[in-house]
Amino acid sequence: MPKFRELKASQIISSQQSNWMSRLKDLAIFFKLRLSVIVVLSAFLGYLMGAEVAVLSEITALILGGILLTGASNGFNQVWERDIDGLMKRTAERPMPTGRMSVVQGILVASLAGGSGVFILWYFLNPIAGILGVIAIFFYVFLYTPMKMHSPLAVFIGAFPGAIPPMLGYVAASSSFGVEPGILFAVQFMWQFPHFWAIAWVAHDDYAKAGYRLLPFRSGRTKRTAFQIVLYSLFLIPVSLLPWALPAESPMVGNIAAAVTFICGAVFALLAFRLYKSLELKDAKTLMFASFIYLPIVQLIYVIDKI
Question: Is the dihedral of CA 166, 64, 291, 161 positive or negative?
């Protein structure tokens, strides 16, 4: 009998542990934690660009506040799109469409995360960082999210909150806004067009089930769309050289960063051109993965060259 009770107790504990692990996994999916980490990395590198001396407490506040804010934006997005997510293969198993998380729970969790993130950025860093956080979540949730169903201009709107992280990081370090954080914003802003369009090309069939229109033209996966991707990947090259092109007395980076950035941009543009020539899904996937690699490499070389 005691052995039976011990076995039953261990089963209960195991079940509780499994339940908690499941909840944590759902929370990670709800926050899109992997994406949040990439976004926060961009903010962290922006902070290093703006900091004369890196302060551990500020870095901690930036990372924690950034993850909470980005997670909140992704969470509100999933609450808004819960029915649509159920139509697409890649999102059908998320906690909202499967019912593992209710609408009320989603709103409460996202609200708590968003409020905490803004408070951390505002109180432990500076008010400008907090305001930028509010602007990012507003644009992403209330402008970009509903527009995805209606117009390809959603990518343009979404590029604004998507480009805020490095600017926010720089402002968090310097407590001031100027040309330098604006340039970091511009680089990430321009990068998002070929990045998002490559994703939209790969996921076009799934997006079509939900009624999303994220490629630049109604014609979809065509030469015209591919040409637009090539064009913006070429625009990205001079924009990414702006930190080097500042007046000689105050450049953000030196010649090494300029050379590496140019090479990365040229390779990225060549991959976009390959998609233009082939219109093949495999080339769109290659471009998509290249876009994930391009941005952290360029931002990291900015930081290394500055140091």
Answer: negative
Residue 21: both structure tokens together: 């692990």
pLDDT surpassing 90 at residue 34: no
Contact 26, 229 (CB under 8 A): no
Q: Count how many residues are written for the chain.
A: 307
In this predicted structure, what is the pLDDT of residue 12? 52
Each as own residue / partner, the long-range contacts of residues 132-138 (CB below 8 Å, 24 or more positions apart, any chain) are 132/164, 132/167, 132/168, 132/171, 133/65, 133/69, 133/168, 135/161, 135/164, 136/69, 136/73, 136/161, 136/164, 136/165, 136/168, 137/69, 137/72, 137/73, 137/76, 137/161
- The pLDDT tens digits for 138-183 are 999 999 988 888 888 899 999 999 999 999 999 999 988 889 999 9
Angle among Cα 298, 214, 208 to the nearest 5 degrees reads: 135
Written as six digits, the tokens of 242 are 């702006």
Q: What is the pLDDT of residues 46-60, one digit of tens each?
A: 999 999 889 999 999
Joined together, the tokens standing for residue 4 give 């039976």
Task: State yes or no: pLDDT of 14 exceeds 60.
Answer: no
Ordered DSSP codes for 1-24: -HHHHHHHHHHHHHHHHHHHHHHH
Give the ranges where the chain is alpha helix by DSSP (H): 2-31, 33-50, 56-80, 82-85, 95-98, 103-120, 127-138, 145-147, 153-174, 179-202, 204-210, 223-240, 242-245, 255-278, 281-306
263: which residues sit within 8 A by CB, 6+ positions away? none
Residue 266's nearest CA partner among 305, 292, 295, 234 is: 234
In this prediction the pTM is 0.89
